[in-house]
Amino acid sequence: MKTLLSATASALLLMVQFAYGASDQSTDATCKAARALELPGFDMKVAGTEYVSGKGPSYCLVNGSFEHRTGADGKPYAIGFSIALPDDWSGRFLVQGGGGLNGVVKPPIGDVAAGANTALARGFAVISHDSGHRGEVWDGSFKADQLATLNFAGWSVEKVAALGKAIVSNYYGTSAHHSYFAGCSTGGREAMTSAQRFPLLFDGIIAGAPAIRTGRSNMSLAQKNVAMNRISPVGTDGVPDRSAAFSDADRKLVLSGILNACDKLDGIEDGMIANASACKFDPSSLICASGTSKDCLRPEQAKVVAEIFSPTLDASGRTAYPAFPYDSGIMSTTDAIPGLMRFDDKRNRQFANHAITFDVDDAIEKVDVDDPQQRLINVDQWTDLSSFASKGSKIIFFHGMSDPWFSANDTIDFFSRMKKATKTNIPADDWARLYLVPGMSHCRGGPGGLEKFDMLTKLVDWVENGKTPQSVDAGGAAPADRTRPLCPYPSYAHYKGEGDANNAASFECRR
């Protein structure tokens, strides 16, 4: 029977009962007793406990909050959390990353890069949190308070990890033998923050599609949206009608042009681009020849396509934000987040931007100079992970090549700079990996269908058994039986020349 320790007299009595094997104490009763849990150093309030069974692994769910205070804006603040404590505990602990601007406590299951089995299903104790404020996914009003902003910038991860480890130790009567973090998007940024600013906190980290510097990425998307506005006819509402900038046939032509130029570079034409670094598509190749107007683009359309897939440059010609990769998901409207070229989709966060002029340098000043909070939140500058690597910790990055919010090239750039800047006697390949996912959108989805992959098993095996991960098999829904190996960057999956083209075994990692 698992032991619940507490600073309260009632919990101490329960501890004695559990320690001496009181037979009338079920796991359900143990979970209910967690309501009385108090921890030195935390003003924790347990809002409720629930023993969950019959729906997969049985576990105790504890919901609560800590660090209660009144903010500078007069609003109440606290860090909300939810922790799942499985009956069949593996001895491992995982902090689950958030999303957007956080503000919501999501179910603690640990599903990022976990394949078919979540971390909770594997016996991990998993904690999730709201990063220290309550609000809708894009509600940034919490930034009126200094500590709330600091918590969002990453402080909350360290605090929640400390709380979670203490709860685990008290609930099970022993500490977790290994601690992990996994997140995507904002959770990917939190993962990077953890490795950069709290390098001794976790043994293993998964950082998916990290929101490295949202001011710069949003700036780049705004510039591309404006480029499309310029060639869009004015609609009946008096604003540019981006749906008329490219017809469906035009969009299909652009995608076909990209695939014709780059699909076969990985040894097989399958509607996917695995060797993206070799892709040299030239949109001007689609411009109509003299006297033709069908199955081709007007010059101004080709110019916009080129601009959308080019780096955003400042007035001096320096790269303000890297190019987005050419990939198969750029026209998608079936995913939760529309593809990069679908600025006409109402779900696109640039949809309400009707400007026809854009000053990159002015935009850079606004996001880099006028917003010091964002500079604190960004994780693009700190590249030295020497303490993290020297401790023996491991980090795995992954990024969808069709991500329309954050360019995979920005993650590649950070990864490359990180490997150079981290000065240790441990080779970078022994503690860091990056996997690029062809066809995948932001964290999931995409027409390539390669959104299901298990990097958590690879990470645990790397951390605990010293087995360095190589390729990771990935699958999805398009087609359902297709699998591909995801290769550690800079290698890519290349068809061997024989065998089932839908089987990962028919591919090998090449450089």
Layout of strands and helices, then pairs:
Layout: H1 9-19, H2 27-33, E1 45-52, E2 59-70, E3 76-86, E4 92-96, E5 125-129, H3 146-172, E6 178-184, H4 186-197, E7 204-208, H5 214-230, H6 248-262, H7 299-308, E8 312-313, E9 319-321, H8 360-368, H9 372-377, H10 386-390, E10 394-400, H11 408-421, E11 432-437, E12 452-453, H12 456-465, E13 472-475, E14 483-486, E15 492-495, E16 507-510
Parallel strand pairs: 4-5, 4-6, 6-7, 7-10, 10-11
Antiparallel strand pairs: 1-2, 2-3, 3-5, 8-9, 12-13, 13-14, 15-16
Question: Would you mind describing this structure in some detail?
Answer:
This protein has helices at residues 9-19, 27-33, 146-172, 186-197, 214-230, 248-262, 299-308, 360-368, 372-377, 386-390, 408-421, 456-465, and strands at residues 45-52, 59-70, 76-86, 92-96, 125-129, 178-184, 204-208, 312-313, 319-321, 394-400, 432-437, 452-453, 472-475, 483-486, 492-495, 507-510. With 511 residues, the chain is of the alpha/beta class. A nine-stranded mixed beta sheet has the order 1-2-3-5-4-6-7-10-11, sandwiched between helices. It starts with 8 loop residues before the first helix and ends with a strand.
